[in-house]
């Protein structure tokens, strides 16, 4: 039987509209908790992604306060340690990646854990087991900041991730309008074919349509901003919410 964190997170990503997520990434405790409180007050935000790799200086107390405040506000927490290979700031090796997640899960209880598809298989399997031992959903993530794979290759990638994760994620940088159309087609295919929710994101200006798509083309989750964007092409929470209300 899947744990409550898995169920809550997966159900939030199985709606006709994508759930709206906001990353938090401040490195000092005061700014960090101010971001947390701002997000907690916004009813349109359902998921908060804590970017662990940008918050190395935070105290354990600030981390625990963050989790408590977000859960009191009814937000789901996705914990993400993004490596440099995937566009993040974490410089440790694969063993350090696993150790950091182990340490943090002794402090707080998020609903989901991001695990990069590119980490070595033995470490990946250990992290998946760690997440499921804590009754958390596993988000398998992959990023390409330069290209977008063909539709066939993207389908194969999501299928491979779906063999070990509760949610699959692919974020790419479209170079042409056709790349964006392929990503929308990928979202529609994933909704129809995969058992897991799929987060399919086009970065940059060409990818913005993928961030507001709903209905048959909706990703399970769209990342938005209440200030500083953590990835190219992110739109504001208010804009995405307004478009959802007007168009869908």
UniProtKB/TrEMBL annotation:
<comment type="function">
    <text>Involved in the third step of the chorismate pathway, which leads to the biosynthesis of aromatic amino acids. Catalyzes the cis-dehydration of 3-dehydroquinate (DHQ) and introduces the first double bond of the aromatic ring to yield 3-dehydroshikimate.</text>
</comment>
<dbReference type="GO" id="GO:0009423">
    <property type="term" value="P:chorismate biosynthetic process"/>
</dbReference>
<dbReference type="GO" id="GO:0009073">
    <property type="term" value="P:aromatic amino acid family biosynthetic process"/>
</dbReference>
<dbReference type="GO" id="GO:0008652">
    <property type="term" value="P:amino acid biosynthetic process"/>
</dbReference>
<feature type="binding site">
    <location>
        <position position="230"/>
    </location>
    <ligand>
        <name>3-dehydroquinate</name>
    </ligand>
</feature>
<protein>
    <recommendedName>
        <fullName>3-dehydroquinate dehydratase</fullName>
        <ecNumber>4.2.1.10</ecNumber>
    </recommendedName>
</protein>
<keyword id="KW-0057">Aromatic amino acid biosynthesis</keyword>
<dbReference type="InterPro" id="IPR013785">
    <property type="entry name" value="Aldolase_TIM"/>
</dbReference>
<feature type="active site" description="Proton donor/acceptor">
    <location>
        <position position="143"/>
    </location>
</feature>
<keyword id="KW-0704">Schiff base</keyword>
<comment type="similarity">
    <text>Belongs to the type-I 3-dehydroquinase family.</text>
</comment>
<feature type="binding site">
    <location>
        <position position="82"/>
    </location>
    <ligand>
        <name>3-dehydroquinate</name>
    </ligand>
</feature>
<feature type="active site" description="Schiff-base intermediate with substrate">
    <location>
        <position position="169"/>
    </location>
</feature>
<feature type="binding site">
    <location>
        <position position="211"/>
    </location>
    <ligand>
        <name>3-dehydroquinate</name>
    </ligand>
</feature>
<comment type="pathway">
    <text>Metabolic intermediate biosynthesis; chorismate biosynthesis; chorismate from D-erythrose 4-phosphate and phosphoenolpyruvate: step 3/7.</text>
</comment>
<dbReference type="Pfam" id="PF01487">
    <property type="entry name" value="DHquinase_I"/>
</dbReference>
<dbReference type="InterPro" id="IPR050146">
    <property type="entry name" value="Type-I_3-dehydroquinase"/>
</dbReference>
<dbReference type="GO" id="GO:0003855">
    <property type="term" value="F:3-dehydroquinate dehydratase activity"/>
</dbReference>
<feature type="binding site">
    <location>
        <position position="234"/>
    </location>
    <ligand>
        <name>3-dehydroquinate</name>
    </ligand>
</feature>
<comment type="subunit">
    <text>Homodimer.</text>
</comment>
<dbReference type="GO" id="GO:0046279">
    <property type="term" value="P:3,4-dihydroxybenzoate biosynthetic process"/>
</dbReference>
<feature type="binding site">
    <location>
        <begin position="49"/>
        <end position="51"/>
    </location>
    <ligand>
        <name>3-dehydroquinate</name>
    </ligand>
</feature>
<keyword id="KW-0028">Amino-acid biosynthesis</keyword>
<dbReference type="InterPro" id="IPR001381">
    <property type="entry name" value="DHquinase_I"/>
</dbReference>
<keyword id="KW-0456">Lyase</keyword>
């Amino acid at each position: 039987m899947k744990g409550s964190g898995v169920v809550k997170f997966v159900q939030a990503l199985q709606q006709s509209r994508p759930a709206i997520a906001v990353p938090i990434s401040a490195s000092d405790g005061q700014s960090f908790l101010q971001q947390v409180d701002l997000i907690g007050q916004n009813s349109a935000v359902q998921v908060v992604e804590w970017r662990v790799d940008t918050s190395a200086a935070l105290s354990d107390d600030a981390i625990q306060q963050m989790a408590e405040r977000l859960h009191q506000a009814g937000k789901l927490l996705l914990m993400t340690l993004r490596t440099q290979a995937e566009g993040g700031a974490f410089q440790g090796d694969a063993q350090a990646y696993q150790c950091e997640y182990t340490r943090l899960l002794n402090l707080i209880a998020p609903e989901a854990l991001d695990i990069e598809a590119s980490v070595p298989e033995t470490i990946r399997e250990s992290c998946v087991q760690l997440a499921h031992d804590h009754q958390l959903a596993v988000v398998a993530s992959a990023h390409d900041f330069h290209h977008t794979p063909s539709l066939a290759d993207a389908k194969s990638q999501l299928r491979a991730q779906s063999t070990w994760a509760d949610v699959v994620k692919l974020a790419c940088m479209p170079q042409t309008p056709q790349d964006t159309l392929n990503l929308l087609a990928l979202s529609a295919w994933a909704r129809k074919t995969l058992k897991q929710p799929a987060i399919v994101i086009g970065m940059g200006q060409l990818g913005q349509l993928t961030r507001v798509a709903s209905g048959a083309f909706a990703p399970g989750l769209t990342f938005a901003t209440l200030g500083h964007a953590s990835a190219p092409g992110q739109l504001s929470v208010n804009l995405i919410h307004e478009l959802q209300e007007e168009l869908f």
